[in-house]
Amino acid sequence: MKSQEIILNENRTVSLTAYIQEVDGEFGFSKRPAMLVLPGGGYAMCSDREADPVAATYLKAGYQAFILRYTCTPRGKWPLPLEDYEQAMALIEERADEWHLDKAKIAVVGFSAGGHLAACAATIAEHKPAAAVLVYPAILKDICDMCQPGMPYPHEHVTAETCPCFFAAARDDRTVDISNTLRMELALAEKGVAFESHIYSYGGHGFSTGEDWINTNSVCPRLPHWVPDSIQWLGEVMGKLKRGGFTEPVSAISMNGNFAPVLSVDCTLSHLRRQSEEAKAVLVPLFAAIEAVAKARQFSVEGLMAAVGNNTAREIMEMVQIPGSAITEIDKALHQMVNQLEG
Fold first, then answer.
1. What CA–CA distances, in Å, run from 230 to 57, 265, 269, 307?
2. Of 178, 132, 138, which Cα lies nearest the Cα of 40?
3. Do 72 and 118 lie in a common domain?
4. How many domains does the chain have?
5. Which terminus of the chain has a smaller tally of CB atoms within 10 A, N or C?
């Protein structure tokens, strides 16, 4: 493994530390996923406890890891940290071949104020990550204004195009109240964006990876599980790195199907029913199965269609036990059709 520190802005002490692992040969693959680490510190510092120890966990999972030490007071204020992020991501993408990484598989993990920056990356940045891991993130007005007045509140900027997010926080966090995480989750749910959440019974604030040697407070014994859980989740969202390359993402959680460029079985039934006659023809087995259930239970067909309209086609076909091979063929056929978005 090679390490390199790149100075992005000397006056503001902004730097990008790159940890680059080898590929090919014994590894059997030519590209790795990447994780950009954004430490916390209230935008007054970048915590060392949330930097290298975090990068090490993702390196172990096969990622190329990067640590951005962004602009903090008194050297500068918002939006400079976001500009630092954009510069770092642009550089990572530019040097993707040199650093043996897949540009479509760059994720970000942020803690506290770094979680705010990561949430902004997921919502308003030009260089959006493929996925965001938000650990006790600052989201709401009170805590954001305390750090630096005038910063955006990420939950207000969530759209259907926001990337999937993973959350880890403790219920008893007295520094960044748990309502920050919950409100961001609610915003994602309202827009149909995929996320996974781990709210632990206790652990306070600043637990980093949750390991005993790094913790400054008592934590729930399950809390350190958030790291391997996030790695497994990232494998589902972006594809898991295995010998020989990446697996396919678990498409049901990797994106909001209704807003993808092409159709898929991960679109909701109600959305698919508004598509072309060609698309509806592909879905005849699904419609027939719903009609059979309605007849057997003496339901209105249209009423049942409406009742399950917010379920994805995949979910419904699995419920009515359409074979997996048939679901795959329907999905392939839908992928050939442009998604006709509303409005």
1. 11, 25, 29, 33
2. 138
3. yes
4. 2
5. C
